[in-house]
Every structure is written in structure tokens, then in C-alpha cells.
Amino acid sequence: MKLRNRPKPNGFTLIELMVVIVIIGILTTVVVINVLPNVDKAALTRARADIAALETALTSYKADTMVFPSTPQGLAALKAAPADLGNPDRYRPGGYLTRLPDDPWGHPYQYASPGRHGAFDIWSMGPDGTSGPGGEADDIGNWNL
Known about the structure:
Layout: H1 14-65, E1 110-112, E2 121-124, E3 140-141
Antiparallel strand pairs: 1-2, 2-3
């Protein structure tokens, strides 16, 4: 009895496809488990670095003008001289920052002078975007760097 040469079918079998899908699923799980915690850690590190840069700019502002910006003047005083600045001629030409950063969660940094924790407070409201009773648990400020 003579066997005919059967043409080999093109493509993959169902078992081969399932093995590939399982391998991709395992790799995805490993990547997600290892990367997601680092994203949160990176956001916290960036917030702390931004707050430190804002502190430096505020210190330079005070060295030039002899006062910290008031709470109503806010951090915007680092970009442009406030209209009610006592000695506008002492304000650094071009300001102290080229732009005001938002925190890693897309909210503006908060500022108060005098602060509850020092001469001034700068803080991010954290991932939840709220401060106040119960909301400050995830706040990141210059007092807890």
C-alpha cells in the first residue's frame, strides 16, 4: 500500500495558539505586578522634587524682596511680580520660575504663608485631590519631605 504525500496544512493549531496566549498572559501579569507599584513611587518622588524646587524659588524670592509671597499672591508670584509687591524694583527680571508645575495627579500645588508648619507651606493634595478633614492622609508637603 502506497501512502500519498498529504499537503501539510498552513497555520497554527488551536493548542499552539492557546500556549502562546497563556505565555503572553503570564508575561503581562509579571510586568503589571512589577511596574504598577513603581508608578506610584515615581509620582511621589516627582511631587517631592517639585516641592523642593518651589521651596528654593521661594527662598530666592525672599532673599530679593525680603518677604515671602502672601497666600493671596500665591505661587504665581514666582512667575511674575505681584501687583501689590512692596518693592517691585527688587523683583528678579524674568521671575523665579519659567512655569508653575502641576502635581503628578494634575492638580496645582497649594501654598500658604504663614503656614501651619513653618514660614510657608507648599503641598500637593495627593492622588485623591482633596485636603481637609480626612483628605490630608495622602497630602505631600514641605513639612514631610
